[in-house]
Amino acid sequence: MKAIKVGLLGIGTVGSGTFNVLRRNQAEIRGRAGRGIEITMVSRRNVALAREIVGEAAQVVADPREIIANPEIDIVVELIGGCGVARELVLEAIAAGKHVVTANKALIAVHGTEIFAAAREKGVMVAFEAAVAGGIPIIKALREGLTANRIEWLAGIINGTTNFILSEMRSKGLDFATVLKEAQRLGYAESDPTFDIEGVDAAHKATIMSAIAFGIPVQFDKAHVEGISQLQATDIKYAEQLGYRIKLLGIARRRSDVAGGGIELRVHPTLIPTQRLIANVEGAMNAVVVQADAVGTTLYYGKGAGAEPTASAVIADLVDITRLHTADPDHRVPHLAFQPDSMSNTPILPMEQVLTSFYLRLRVADEAGVLSRITTILAEHDISIDAVLQRESAEGEKQTDLIILTHETQEGRMNTALSQMQSLPTVLAPIVRLRKEELA
After folding, report:
1. CA distance 75 to 8
2. Residue 334 burial class via C-beta count within 10 angstroms: exposed 0-12, middle 13-18, buried 19 and up
3. Residue 51 to residue 42: CA distance in whole angstroms
C-alpha cells in the first residue's frame, strides 16, 4: 500500500526528534499503521540547518506554504508554535484537505473551537497528543481509554520547568530566584520563563484536558491562572512539616452542587499530602491523576517534554491518522471525545465559587488573644480549621508565624475572611494563602 506522505512545518527540537524516531522505528511503525509513514517535505527558514538534519531523505523548503500546496502531502505536522502564523497555516492546511498533527498547546487551547469546526467541515482530522504532557498519552487515555467513564476530576503536574524548580526549592531549601537561575543554566527554563513560571503553559494544557474530560468547548480565557514566582521557601518548609508538598497543579473538576452544574478550571500552587503518588513526582517529570466513576483513580506519569518523548506523541498521532485515513469522517474518534452535537454548555465557574481547602500563613504579634480573634473570624464565615502550627518566637522577638490549615470551603467565603483578618492590628504582614487538595 502507498505510504502516507507527511510534511513538517518546522524542524527544531521536536521536529528533528520526530524525523529521527520515525526513521529509526520505521519497520515497527509500518507494522502498526498498516502502511509506511514518510516525511517527504520539511520547512525551515534556515534551509541549510534543516538539510543537516534530514540530508537527502526529504525535500527542504523555506516557505511552509509550499508543503500545504503540495497535493502529494497527506498530513501536515505543525511544530512552529505560537498562535499567529501557526493558526493561519493550520487553517490553510485544513482548507487544502490535509490532516493536521500539532504539538501546539496554546493554539489548541485558544483557537481549538475554530480549528475543530473547520476540520469537521472539510472531513479531516486534527490530532494533538503532543500538546499535553509530552510523551504521556493522556489525550488518548481521556478520549478513548476512559470513554466508558463519567470523569469527576483530574489534576496534573503538567509543566516540567515549574516542577523542577519546586523540587529543588524543597530538597535544597533554596529560594525561587536562585533555583530559576539554575534551571535556566541546565536548560529546563527558557531565558524568558514567564509562560512556565506564571502558569500559562500549564493552563493551556489543563484547558485542553478539561474539554475532553467533560465534553465542553476549549475555554482558556476562563481558566484561573497563578504561577510560582511569588512562592517562598518558608511555605515549602512549613508544608513539609505538616505532611504536604507544594506542586503547581492544573485542576479540572465537575461540580453538581451549583445550579445547573459547573466546571472548576484552575492552575495554582497546591499543597498535596505527601502520601499521594503525585506529590512524589520530582524534577522535570509530569503526572496526571484522573478520577472516574467506573475505573476509579488512574495515574499517568512520564516525561513531559524533550525531543523524543514529544516525538513519540507526534508519531502516535500520525499512526492514528494513517489507520483512519480512509474511514468515514462521521465514524472517527471526535476531536474532543464527544460528538459535536453532544457537547455541553456547562459553564466554567468563577474562582469565588470554587471549593477547596486552604493553607494560611500569618505573621502575627506574639501576644495573648491573637489566635482567638483569628479563629473567631474563620468561624463566623463557617470555615472549619483542620490544623494549627504556631512557631515559638525566638528570645526577644515579639512576632511569630501562625500556620492554619482549613477544611474545604468556598473561595469567596475565604476571601472575605482574609480581608477581615488582614485588617487586624496584630497581623503584621500580608497573609500568605495557598490552596490545598487532598486528591482522595
Report:
1. 9
2. middle
3. 9
Given a contact cutoff of 8 angstroms between Cβ atoms, the answer to whether 148 and 294 are in contact is yes
Q: Is 205 a catalytic residue?
A: yes
Topology of domain 4-137+307-342, CATH? Rossmann fold (3.40.50)
| Residue 45 dihedral angles phi and psi, to the nearest 5° | -60, -40
Identify any residues that bridge with 358 across adjacent strands, giving them in sequence order: 435
- The active-site residue out of 140, 205, 247, 436 is 205
Q: Residue 159 burial by CB count (10 A; 0-12/13-18/19+): exposed, middle or buried?
A: buried
Check if CATH label 2.60.120.280 holds for domain 354-436. no
Provide mean pLDDT across the span 214-241: 96
- pLDDT reported for residue 397: 81
- Decide if 416 contacts 377 (C-beta within 8 A): no
Indicate if the alpha-carbon torsion angle 185, 309, 10, 223 is positive or negative: negative
Write the pLDDT tens digit of every residue in 357-410: 999 999 999 988 999 999 999 999 999 999 999 887 776 688 999 999 999 999
> pTM score, two decimals?
0.95
Q: Which three cell numbers stand for residue 168?
A: 529543588
Query: What class has domain 138-303?
Result: alpha beta
Produce one character per residue of 347-375: b if its CB has 16 or more CB atoms within 10 Å, e if not: ebbebeebebbbbbbbebbbeeebeeebe
Q: What are the cell numbers at 89?
A: 497555516
Residue of 293, 243, 261 lying closest to 438 (CA atoms) = 243
Residue ranges of the domains in the chain?
4-137+307-342, 138-303, 354-436
DSSP code of residue 348: B
CA-based nearest residue to 139, from 347, 292, 340, 335: 335
Q: What is the DSSP string of 374-420?
A: HHHHHHHTT--EEEEEEPPPPTT--EEEEEEEE-SEEHHHHHHHHHH
pLDDT (average), residues 34-43: 96
On whether the CB atoms of residues 404 and 363 are closer than 8 A, the answer is: no
